[in-house]
């Protein structure tokens, strides 16, 4: 059996891993560390919760120690890019843990907080900088950071980083990096179109894939509850009131939806906090700290948190709404069953979400067991959604007459309304009704 001591890591890194309680490397760690120590580019694919951060942090710290160099002002020797503030903070803490005996300068930069401390850290120069793309570009444009001295760059959650809105910032950042550098892509999923983009940025990379693309974590038991949309909150409250749901994350599709679900849970007597992009960094930090400390039993989140929450002993993940992008399902349920623990994922699926469920099952190549809790279960699951017909063109919908105008005359065959009694109050314009 492979041990960390067999992989060629620096003594100080091995000591830090022992302090963290690490004994045996996971498959992604065992396969990724040797080529990274040799200086190769790497494309690593592993399901979430399998130790990707250690797989790149430990060898990169070792290489920094092998080639000691004092950080230059306004430069960083290693750059790690992450899609969310929470994930950036998590990676930064991991680097500090694995490098605790190495005497390195490590900082984290993301939006939602003041520039002052970040500028001070960048001005001194860094060994490792973990950043979100937007705030990193802000600092670069203000002259607080240059990348010509960066020897290695990491894209964590690369599929998300290169998707949609992240592609342009990533290209701008890469254009400022030296051509001779070590580039690492790590992700739980790697769709073919994203892999093509990764191919443009990697040079003859080593490829490590320890699990099929989009495979869900093995230790997560999955279940779907079929129900009407209007009954989701009732069912969610019933689930979370079970003592077995000791620490749970509930996912919604929208920020407003997260706030509403959190309020409903609080009204039901549960301790809950919402976390999403409209929250300030202070609010997000307090919610996450409360969840980690056990003061908050339920964290209601949008997909911004699916790749940035690394909390031990999350017993359940509940998809209050199924994600529109099936890959997000893999990341959501990966918040439980971490570090070898068991976990459970429950998805509430209404009739209009059946296509989303099919897309998830197709991507993950599995059929998720379901429980039918619909009030009218005789309705076929694949029945088309029936939309209400538009009003007939021959008769426009009723509208109130504009103030000060007489109502439109009645058509033939229409019944006249009974006269309004004086006791019914005043007309809409506030004038006293005439007798």
From TrEMBL:
InterPro entries: DEAD/DEAH_box_helicase_dom, DEAD/DEAH_RhlB, DEAD_box_RNA_helicase, Helicase_ATP-bd, Helicase_C-like, P-loop_NTPase, RNA_helicase_DEAD_Q_motif. GO terms for cellular component: cytosol. It catalyses: ATP + H2O = ADP + phosphate + H(+). The keyword Hydrolase applies. Gene3D superfamilies: P-loop containing nucleotide triphosphate hydrolases. GO terms for molecular function: ATP binding; hydrolase activity; nucleic acid binding; RNA helicase activity. Residues 235-379 form the Helicase C-terminal domain. Residues 33-208 form the Helicase ATP-binding domain. Residues 2-30 form the DEAD-box RNA helicase Q domain. Its EC number is 3.6.4.13. Pfam families: DEAD, Helicase_C. Residues 368-435 are annotated as: Disordered. Keywords: ATP-binding, Cytoplasm, Helicase, Hydrolase, Nucleotide-binding. Signal peptide: none annotated. The keyword Hydrolase applies. Residues 409-435 have a biased composition (Basic and acidic residues). SUPFAM superfamilies: P-loop containing nucleoside triphosphate hydrolases. One of its GO terms (biological process) is ribosome assembly. Belongs to the DEAD box helicase family. This is DEAD-box ATP-dependent RNA helicase RhpA.
């Amino acid at each position: 059996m492979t041990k960390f001591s067999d992989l060629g890591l620096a003594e100080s890194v091995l000591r830090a891993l022992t302090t963290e309680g690490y004994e045996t490397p996971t498959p992604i760690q065992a396969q990724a560390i040797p080529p990274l120590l040799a200086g190769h580019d790497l494309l690593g694919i592993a399901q979430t919760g399998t130790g990707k951060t250690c797989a790149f942090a430990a060898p990169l710290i070792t290489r920094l120690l092998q080639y000691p160099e004092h950080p230059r002002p306004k430069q960083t020797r290693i750059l790690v890019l992450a899609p969310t503030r929470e994930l950036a903070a998590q990676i930064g803490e991991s680097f500090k843990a694995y490098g605790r005996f190495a005497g390195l300068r490590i900082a984290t930069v993301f939006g939602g907080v003041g520039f002052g401390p970040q500028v001070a850290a960048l001005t001194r120069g860094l060994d490792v900088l973990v950043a979100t793309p937007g705030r990193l570009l802000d600092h670069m444009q203000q002259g607080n950071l240059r990348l010509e001295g960066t020897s290695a760059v990491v894209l964590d959650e690369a599929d998300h980083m290169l998707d949609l809105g992240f592609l342009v910032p990533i290209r701008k950042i890469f254009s400022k990096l030296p051509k001779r550098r070590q580039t690492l892509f790590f992700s739980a999923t790697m769709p073919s179109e994203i892999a093509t983009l990764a191919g443009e940025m990697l040079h003859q990379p080593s490829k490590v894939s320890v699990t099929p693309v989009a495979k869900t974590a093995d230790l997560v038991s999955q279940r779907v509850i079929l129900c009407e949309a209007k009954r989701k909150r009732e069912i969610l409250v019933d689930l979370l009131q079970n003592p077995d749901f000791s620490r749970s994350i509930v996912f919604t599709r929208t920020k407003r939806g997260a706030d509403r679900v959190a309020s409903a849970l609080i009204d039901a007597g549960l301790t809950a906090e919402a976390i999403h992009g409209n929250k300030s960094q202070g609010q997000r930090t307090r919610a996450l700290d409360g969840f980690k400390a056990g003061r908050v039993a339920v964290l209601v989140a949008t997909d911004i948190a699916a790749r940035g929450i690394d909390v031990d002993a999350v017993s359940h993940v509940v998809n209050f709404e199924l994600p529109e992008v099936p890959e997000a399902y893999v990341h959501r349920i990966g918040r439980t069953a971490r570090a070898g623990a068991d976990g459970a994922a429950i998805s509430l699926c209404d009739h209009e979400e059946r296509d989303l469920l099919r897309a998830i099952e197709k991507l993950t190549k599995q059929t998720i067991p379901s429980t039918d809790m619909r009030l009218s279960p005789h309705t076929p699951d694949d029945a088309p959604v029936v939309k209400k017909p538009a009003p007939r063109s021959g008769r426009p919908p009723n509208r109130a007459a504009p103030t000060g105008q007489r109502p439109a005359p009645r058509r033939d065959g229409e019944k006249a309304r009974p006269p309004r009694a004086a006791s019914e109050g005043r007309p809409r314009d506030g004038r006293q009704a005439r007798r």
